[in-house]
Specification:
mainly alpha; Tetracycline Repressor, domain 2; 10 helices
């Protein structure tokens, strides 16, 4: 029961952060969002730091589950078009509906993690099915320095999501195609 209550409160905290920003994230606001009596959140998460840690941990759990589900739904990534399709799906999910809300919370937490090593450790890019699929794709296409190129490609996609989250709109397919072409480039020549 306590575990369920903690999850409920972490989810409510994510909602508060997405709607009201980091300044709006208070124990009272989470109590209201979770429809719990005043003081419930502080009983489970005594400090703001504890609340942020729970929120970030839950955010990472939700992101990991989403990436796992996506890789199960998609066919194996064999062609550039298939990889770009997968990236397009991910960026759409991160910019719409519940994914957009998580993206808003994720970027707010990323800024907070600059001053909080514990949060930064939780938010560090994780091994997951999506990262592994990109790594395998690049390796299968003869890319050297697969780890570095995977990191750069995924970081660039994250930057595009952030840009569109702030400015609106979707991530253009052409931008994703360009990033994949750059990741596949060896010695100045793209590999197909």
């Amino acid at each position: 029961m306590a575990s369920d209550r903690r999850t409920l409160l972490a989810d409510a905290a994510l909602d508060v952060l997405a709607d009201d920003g980091i300044r709006g994230l208070t124990h009272r606001a989470v109590d209201r969002r979770a429809a719990m009596p005043p003081g419930t959140t502080s009983a489970y998460f005594r400090t703001r730091a504890a609340l942020l840690t729970a929120l970030v941990t839950r955010l990472v759990q939700l992101d990991q589950a989403e990436l796992h589900t996506m890789t199960e739904e998609l066919p194996p990534l064999r062609t550039v078009a298939e990889l770009v399709d997968g990236m397009s799906l991910l960026t759409r999910r991160r910019l719409t509906g519940e994914g957009r809300r998580r993206s808003l919370a994720r970027y707010a937490c990323a800024v907070e993690s600059v001053r909080d090593p514990e949060l930064r450790e939780i938010l560090v890019p994780r091994e997951n099915a999506g990262r592994e699929a990109v790594r395998e794709f690049l390796a299968a296409h003869g890319v050297t320095d697969v780890e570095n190129r995977t990191h750069i490609l995924l970081t660039c996609i994250d930057g595009l999501v952030f840009d569109r989250l702030v400015s609106g709109g979707e991530v253009p397919r052409e931008a994703l195609e360009g990033l994949v072409a750059a990741a596949l480039r060896q010695g100045g020549r793209p590999r197909h």
